[in-house]
């Protein structure tokens, strides 16, 4: 696991996930112009903290949790944000 992926795992613990999967897809984007400014990551997070929240609110919660990583180390972040009932 890359250092950034490990930091994502660590910071997203603040949302108390029941399931969290962080995948570093950076290698498949090698040579892409934006890849120089950071990696490409995919996350799947399942937490009851998302209950009653719409998709945009959930994404904002994730962005708030990862903080400055979005400006240093991450070029692209794809996410699936689910509640336990939505699995």
TrEMBL record:
Family annotation (SUPFAM superfamilies): BolA-like (SSF82657)
Gene3D superfamilies: BolA-like (3.30.300.90)
Record InterPro entries: BolA (IPR002634), BolA-like_sf (IPR036065)
Pfam families referenced in this protein's UniProt entry, alphabetically: BolA
Domain of life of the native organism: Bacteria
Similarity comment: Belongs to the BolA/IbaG family.
Protein name (record): BolA family protein
Species per Swiss-Prot/TrEMBL record: Vogesella facilis
């Amino acid at each position: 696991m890359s250092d950034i992926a490990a930091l994502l795992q660590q910071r997203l613990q603040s949302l108390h996930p029941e399931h969290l999967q962080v995948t570093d897809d950076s290698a498949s984007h090698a040579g892409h112009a934006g890849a120089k400014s950071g990696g490409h990551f995919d996350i799947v997070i399942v937490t009851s903290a998302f209950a009653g929240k719409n998709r945009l609110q959930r994404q904002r919660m994730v962005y708030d949790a990862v903080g400055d990583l979005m400006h240093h180390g991450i070029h692209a972040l794809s996410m699936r944000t689910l509640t336990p009932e939505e699995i």
